[in-house]
Amino acid sequence: MDNIPLAERLRPENLDQFFGQAHLVGPSGVLRKLIESDQLVSLIFWGPPGSGKTSLARIVAKATKSHFENFSAVTATLADVRKVVGQAKERLRGYNQKTIFFLDEIHRFNKAQQDALLPHVEDGTIILIGATTENPSFEVISPLLSRCRVLVLNQLTPEDLGKICLRALEELNLKINKEAITFLIQSANGDARIILNTLEIASRISSGKTLSLKDIEESLQRHSLSYDRVGEEHYNTISAFIKSVRASDPDAALYYLARMVEAGEDPLFIARRMVIFASEDIGVAQPTALVVANAVFRACETIGYPECQENLAHGVIYLCLAKKDRSAYNAYFAALEDVRRLGNLPIPLNLRNAPTKLMKDLGYGRGYEPYPKKSESLLPEKLKNKKYFK
User: Fold this and answer.
1) What global pTM score does this model have?
2) What pLDDT sits at residue 31?
């Protein structure tokens, strides 16, 4: 058994052994219902690396007593597709057995290759289960996508990863100290494969029966940084990061970004602060900054680590080099201060909505001009001609 990789030895054989994705495999999960009702359809599993896409496909095949064909879109050819389809037809005709064609990284299949799958998915010759880390709306052709059910897999939680750790340690007959397991889970960024591969290496280099932080650091080739995601160093680092971007210092900003990424900070936390910064500190000086920051957030949400660190770096450089202008931010909070200080001041009659005759008779909406002279103030009487945006 030692020659079989740990990840393969621990691969779950049924839904009850599977950790995570409760929204899909729990008692009311859609995937469990499809399996138990024997109403399986072609599926696209969309989720980050190490979230369980391949394991789920194997579980589905076993639970439905289907033949399982496993291919990667990186190496599979049209000849492979034709061979699988031919054998699937014989299997279906001779034994009434379904064939699940699992295609990892389906986004790597080009349009012609995806077109070749379409008729066989449509007539039920094969049940396609595609796995992808990319948004299938952009990477899978519409006719094929419309014949599949897209199931979104979430990044595994620290609790899920902790359970996988304990299961692996039991298999390896090892223990681990608290500091080491905390660092391992943080470093894994939701990827179960990182957990299992690291523990397997650690089991081979450790001299004792209890894995230490040093064992995990050596196995990961990464050192523990002084960074607590809920502690002082967390706030110190994000503060230094934002202030470096504000000062238009790309070198410092990239350094603090790298520290956060290396320590396992949630990329969405970093990207969220960048979106805020784009309006708060750049604003009208370069409105496209908000577009770029939002694109970075979306990329982090879709891709995840490790690739999204490149999106973060791209966005950080853009924000650093952009002109800075806090006038929109300052103007809004000055207006907010007046709202809180003065309450709901009466809105000028000419700006009020007049849906009824009585309201019109009272003067609501009277004298309204859609394009008034710039000298005319539309503020309540008490704030006439006040300037917030300067």
Assistant:
1) 0.63
2) 94
